[in-house]
Please model this.
Amino acid sequence: MEIRDILGNIRSDHVIHADCGPCKRSFRLDVAVLVERFGPDYPTLDALRKVVCKECGGKLTTMRAYDSKIKVGW
Ligand SMILES: [Zn+2]
Model:
């Protein structure tokens, strides 16, 4: 069964990191905010392509990860 890569299919323990080349800032994108902005049926890759740095407006390099791999509570 094919799983469509849309915003509504991103699991709640899935986070998206974004790095801005021009200003070297790193962000963590909130999936809920993406869904609110683009809608749950919007293709994830297309949504990530449209996200720009909130500081300089530059193009972001995005990377997906699972929350369980992020160290917390240390
Ligand atoms: Zn930037």
Summary: Residues 13 and 69 are 10 Å apart (CA to CA).
